[in-house]
Amino acid sequence: MTASTGGDIRTRIDSGYGELRPQEQRAADFILDHLDDLAVYSATEIATASGVSKATVSRLFRRLGFADAQDVREHARSLRRRGVPVGPTSAASGGLAQHLAVERANLDALLAGLGDGRLEEAAALVAAAREVVVIGFRNSYPVALHLRQQLAQARPDVRIAPAPGQSVGEKLAGLGPRDAVVLVGFRRRPAGFAGVLASLEAQDVPVVLVVDPAARLPSADSTRVLVCPVDSVAAFDSYAAAMSLANLLAAAVLAVAPGAGRARIGGITALYSELGELE
């Protein structure tokens, strides 16, 4: 019997679990219970922890389509690089100091990438647009929503997409060279992400693309790319640097026309008071 060798290791185990020998199932159970830490386990450690022989673990790896434990660790690291939550389950599992070091490294990399003036170019594009649409999918949506909230205070006509119950196409229809789209797309992007970008390029819509370093970058001259690392010592990606970028971009848009921006902020603040919306 050979378990399925397609998909990630969980899929491979699930597809052939019933045909594994009892000892192999014990090792497979341990792997399924420790997927978050799989990138650091050796075959000996898996064997000891699951109470089976190292030969059993090695045989299981081969059934799953892996050459050895190193191949499995590389597979786990590959999943993590794509944004799959494989890694320590506790934010403090690598130590709070290590967590802080990675967050600082993300911010350092973000700021280093903005040193060539691309932030100011993106801000000028957004500030001059007739209408701005901020688009974010899946885990990118909260960052897009926060950015839209900040930009809406700096300038009028800023929309979010997709809105609940709405397709993205409804927001893209009618956009053109006088408009701008901020497209936020961190790893584990949906399958249609590239299609959205291609559609915007076909409509000659200027785009500010906010992505992680692993993204495939477009060649269109009308696209400004802001690269934001999302690395983390924990199982899930960190968006601390992404939120910082949202702050920087909104502030830079405000700085393009500070008088008009402050007048808009003043009007919004006055309405908050008039409507009793804030404490």
TrEMBL record:
SUPFAM superfamilies: Homeodomain-like, SIS domain. Pfam families: HTH_6. PROSITE patterns: HTH_RPIR. InterPro entries: Homeodomain-like_sf, HTH_RpiR, RpiR-like, SIS_dom_sf, WH-like_DNA-bd_sf. Residues 7-83 form the HTH rpiR-type domain. This is MurR/RpiR family transcriptional regulator. It comes from Frondihabitans peucedani.
